[in-house]
């Protein structure tokens, strides 16, 4: 997967189109990413007992995963943030390096 944890991404389609956020978690087996402040849903939790004490129930707003095809990586070029596709190249030691297609710079 070309998007990794900690990357700044922009949503390119869906209800949150245009929003930018940091990737909290990448789930490569499902091709999904969890983006900060994007795809927020209300989750109803039941009051229960935990090891540390009681847990209050209620409605909690959390981020839900979105498909990786709906986000694009954001890189900075000349002080401006631009969205770009991600490519790969190999250095002299044979290490795989991510490259921003629009700017040509290493990520």
Would you summarize the structure shown here?
This protein is an all-beta fold and about 110 residues long. Helix content is about 0%, strand content about 55%.
Q: Which helices and strands occur, and which strands form pairs?
A:
Layout: E1 8-11, E2 20-27, E3 32-35, E4 40-45, E5 48-50, E6 53-55, E7 58-63, E8 66-67, E9 71-77, E10 80-84, E11 86-90, E12 96-100
Antiparallel strand pairs: 1-2, 1-9, 2-3, 3-8, 4-7, 5-6, 9-10, 11-12
Domain KOW: 2-29
Family: Belongs to the universal ribosomal protein uL24 family.
Function: One of the proteins that surrounds the polypeptide exit tunnel on the outside of the subunit. One of two assembly initiator proteins, it binds directly to the 5'-end of the 23S rRNA, where it nucleates assembly of the 50S subunit.
Jot down its keywords.
107 residues; six-stranded antiparallel β-sheet; mainly beta
In words, what does this structure look like?
- By secondary structure, the protein is mainly β.
- It is 0% helix and 54% strand.
- The chain contains no helices and 12 strands.
- The chain has strands spanning 8-11, 20-27, 32-35, 40-45, 48-50, 53-55, 58-63, 66-67, 71-77, 80-84, 86-90, 96-100.
- A 6-stranded antiparallel β-sheet has the order 8-3-2-1-9-10, with no helix packed on it. A two-stranded antiparallel sheet has the order 4-7. Strands 5-6 form a two-stranded antiparallel sheet.
- The two termini are 14 Å apart.
